[in-house]
Amino acid sequence: MPVEFFSEHISPPSFNSGIIGKWVETIIDKEDYTPGVINIIFCNDNYLLELNNRYLNRDHYTDVLSFDNSENQCINADIYISLERVEENSKKYSVPFADELNRVIIHGVLHLVNYNDSTEEEKKNMTEMENKYLEFLRSMTT
Predict the structure, then answer these.
(1) What is the pLDDT along the chain (142 residues), one digit of tens a residue?
(2) Domain boundary assignment for the chain
(3) Cα pseudo-dihedral 119, 40, 76, 17, rounded to 10
(4) pTM higher than 0.85 for the full model?
(5) CA of 52: how far to CAs of 78, 79, 110, 125, in Å?
(6) Which CATH superfamily includes the segment(s) 3-140?
(7) What is the pLDDT of residue 13?
(8) Backbone angles phi, psi at 69, to 5 degrees
């Protein structure tokens, strides 16, 4: 299976890795890319902050970092997700933890298929795509 899940310095969340893995692969395919090896690594705030400092020269917490190792249209990547940020954001936005986790996963995947969120217009488009693919996930599980 091209999507694999790991954890660093934190217990992994409870979720259906088979469904989420298939969802990620399907989204990549729908965006006209080929899924290669995608590692989703769950970690804590400090671990992700260290990566953000070391590789992006940014000194702030974030919920997700995508490291793209793709070649041509084949997506190979490591997506790091801070479960502490996901938990905090789920409370902040009053959404279930699982929903916020799925949003962060898809956000990381969308970066790999060339969606950005630097400008207000890009952020709006990114959110629309997240919502579209979250709805698709709901249709996969009902």
Answers:
(1) 589 999 999 999 999 999 999 999 999 999 999 999 999 999 999 999 999 999 888 888 899 999 999 999 999 999 999 999 999 999 999 999 999 999 999 999 999 999 999 999 999 999 999 999 999 999 998 8
(2) 3-140
(3) -120
(4) yes
(5) 13, 12, 19, 24
(6) Metalloproteases ("zincins"), catalytic domain (3.40.390.30)
(7) 95
(8) -120, 30
Give the position of tokens 């630097």.
Answer: 118
Q: Return the structure tokens found at 128.
A: 């629309």
Residue type present at position 4: E
- Token digits for 30? 């729908």
